[in-house]
């Protein structure tokens, strides 16, 4: 049931121009890049040490 509610909510947001995909690390050569602040981190990073973002 939670999945159906989430799908409805995602549809509502996407119809209004919001992104509904779950955010993840971006890759920049051999580094991970935070999608929030663009800080670069090693491949073993689990959280951004610049802004605190976590996937």
From TrEMBL:
InterPro entries, per database record: HVO_0416-like (IPR049695)
Name of the molecule in the record: Small CPxCG-related zinc finger protein
The organism of origin for this protein: Salinirubellus salinus
């Amino acid at each position: 049931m939670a999945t159906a509610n989430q799908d409805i909510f995602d549809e509502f947001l996407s119809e209004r121009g919001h992104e509904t995909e779950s955010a993840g690390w971006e890759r920049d050569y051999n580094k991970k890049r935070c999608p929030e602040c663009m800080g670069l981190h090693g491949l073993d990073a689990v959280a951004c040490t610049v802004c605190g973002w976590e996937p």
